[in-house]
Batch of 2 targets.
Target 1
Amino acid sequence: KAGVTQTPRYLIKTRGQQVTLSCSPISGHRSVSWYQQTPGQGLQFLFEYFSETQRNKGNFPGRFSGRQFSNSRSEMNVSTLELGDSALYLCASTPTGTSTEAFFGQGTRLTVV
Amino acid sequence: SQQGEEDPQALSIQEGENATMNCSYKTSINNLQWYRQNSGRGLVHLILIRSNEREKHSGRLRVTLDTSKKSSSLLITASRAADTASYFCATDEEGYSTLTFGKGTMLLVSP
C-alpha cells in the first residue's frame, strides 16, 4: 500500500510570503500530524487532525494553520513567512492517532530567504 | 518543547560492533517508540514499547524501558554501514496522540 506522500519536496519562499504544504496519508488512516524539524529545536509538534477536526495543537504562533479534508488529506499553511520558518516539515499518519506507530512522509524542505 | 534527551549525541563505531543509545524523558508515558531518520528524510518507525513492558526485541534491535528512571535504551547488534542514521526516541501520553521527540543520536557505522 502506498505510503505517506508530501508535496512539494522542496520549496524556496521569500520572507512575508505564505506557503501551503500538502500531505496525503496512508489509505484508511484518519489521523494526520504535522511536525517541524530544525537543527536548533529538533522535532516539534505542530498540530494533529482527526476526521477533519483539529484534535491537538502545539506551541506555534497563529501564522501556522492547517486543515483536513474528508478524504483525510491534510494541508498546512504558514503565512507571513519568517527566516526562522526554514525547516523540514514532516507529516505523519496513523489509523486513529493513539498508541501506535506513526508513518512519516519524506517531508517538505522549506527555505525562506 | 523536547520531552527528553538522547545520549550520546553522536556515536561512531565499526561494522560488526554493537551500538547503544539512551533516552530519558520527563513525564509519565503511555508508550515509547524509536525512529530512524536518514539524512534529512522522513522518519521510519523501528519499535514501540508500552509503559508496562520492560524489554522488547525486533531483529537486531533490543529496547529496554525503565519507567522508574524514566529512561530507555536502544541496542543495535552487529551494526552495518546501512545503520548509519539519526535515531530518535518519542513518547506519547495516555489519551494523547502527539509524539514528543528527543534530540536524537547520530550514529555513524564505518565499513
Target 2
Amino acid sequence: GQNIDQPTEMTATEGAIVQINCTYQTSGFNGLFWYQQHAGEAPTFLSYNVLDGLEEKGRFSSFLSRSKGYSYLLLKELQMKDSASYLCAPMDSNYQLIWGAGTKLIIKP
Amino acid sequence: IAGITQAPTSQILAAGRRMTLRCTQDMRHNAMYWYRQDLGLGLRLIHYSNTAGTTGKGEVPDGYSVSRANTDDFPLTLASAVPSQTSVYFCASSEDERNTEAFFGQGTRLTVV
C-alpha cells in the first residue's frame, strides 16, 4: 500500500532552524511536493523535488532521496508566521498526490 | 484577481438532503480536484478531472459525484448527505495532472446533522 509518515507535531524557537522529515512508500514516483497550511486556510505550495538532492528557496529548503523514500523540509530563521502545518505529498505512478496527515509546527518566542 | 473560488464557505446540512459545492477557476487550468480533509488525516481525493469533459474517481468517491462541462467549473454533489460526510472540502486546480503545482480554493466547511 501507499504510506506517508511525518511527525504529528514539532515545536521550535523563533530564529532557530527546524527540519521536518517525511518518509514515503508509493506505487511508482513522480516527484514530491511540500505544502504549507495555516490553521483554517487552504494549503499553499512550497516546493517540488523530483531528483535527489537539495532545493533551496529563500529560508526554505527541501531535500529528496528517492532510494531511501525520504524527504525533509528545512526552515531557517524561523518566524512566528511559520507556525502552520506542513504537508508532505509524493506523487505516484498515476500522477496522484498521496498526502501525509501533516506536521503541525509551533513556533515559540 | 486570478484564482480558484469555492461556495459556500460553510454549510450546515440535514442528513438526507442533496447539496452541490461549487468550484470555479479562472486560470484556464486543465486539471481540477476535490479533496476532503478530516482531523488527523491527510487530504483524501474524492474525484478529479484531467480535462473538460472527463472525470475520474479518487480514493473516497462513494456518495459523491462530479461533472466537468467546461474548463472553469467543477461542482461536487452529495446526492443524499450522511453525517460521515462532515468535513472540510477543498477544490484545487493545476495546469495539468503531471508534476505541476496545485492551487487550492479557500475550502467549504460542511456539517451534516
